[in-house]
Amino acid sequence: MPPNLRIALRFLTARKRSMLMSLAGIVFGVGFFIVTQAQTSGFENFFIRTILGTNGALRVENPLRPAAAGARSPSDGNIQEPARVAAALRQFGNVAGVSQILQAGVNLVGATAALPGRVCGVDLDDHLAVTDLARQILRGDLEDYRRTPNGALVGNVLANWLQVGVGDSFAIEIHGQTRRYRVCAIYETGIRDIDKERVYLHLDEARSLLQRPGATSFIQVSLFDPDRAPEDAAQIQAVIQHAVSSWQLREKTWLEVFRALRFSSALTVSTIILVAGLGMFNTLAMLVLEKTKEIAILRSMGYTRRDISGIFLWQGALVLVGGAVLGSLFGAAATWGVSRLPIRIRGIFSTDSFVVTWSPWHYLAAVGAAAAVVLVASYLPARRAARLEPGEVIRGNAQ
Fold first, then answer.
1. pTM, two decimal places
2. What is the pLDDT of residues 290-303, one digit of tens each?
3. Which end of the chain is more exposed for a tag (fewer CB within 10 A), N or C?
């Protein structure tokens, strides 16, 4: 063991209680930092997966029209030649799936209630390729829906309001006509705004019901790498001359909310580390005052200023290493425990437990924050200790 490290350990034991309090602060600060980041990142990633599994990574809408200044803006109406547009989309390397969707507002009439809703006409196989609909089915069977021309998929909130279940029928009213459909399955996306109004019909049936043969309101696209959605949206829009929006643009508000929550939680929990650093600074500063004679003796024995400052920096390093290791273990255990806690959330996504993300970056960020605080808390007392001169200590003039 290096002499400087041995002396640092001896000095640490001189104020054992104070150092243990500082160590505990670092442990809890690092641990809580990891837990809060795992939670906020977990909910954000779960929200993103829900959005991608429901609304897709890209949405292709109206064709562009020339604007007066030379730029192009979206026009009103349906996608022109949707089959050709869908075929062109499949040629892009990052495109994983393409689904044509026809949607319109309708009136829904159930056993005891009539409500406004939204019909979405889809080709089932294409839509399963761009969404998580197969995993969102609560009751019923998609194969039954596939075999039933007048079959429908109904959101669970809407089904409760209409008081219909699998096998029951309900009516859709539009353009002065009424058609009845059978509930083949009930789904839950976790996004209440979708689950309370959206009814899936076969695309050909929706076109017949809405009297819009061959029409497509928009095309939903899934990507192999959703993070590339903004770049792909710009490239696809330039090629096919239709308005294309990425999921990051559509959900910008919620993404900003999650980022703000993640930063706010990190800033709040970092105060624990800061308080522990202040306690360490106070402890080391008092230690310098108590050990002036010992420091003078070391200087007289040939220890340089660098050696003296190294002794006090070693004390900070020892507390930091202990706090980082124990704090990381505490953070991992707490994250695992939190992930097992039951909680029912229904709103912008659906979950019955806390969602966490396991990422090494959370641990690196927590240890980095602790290292910055401990470095400052150790450096100032170490610098003061290094400036002590043996002669001044003997004369009693050391400050």
1. 0.74
2. 666 666 777 667 77
3. N
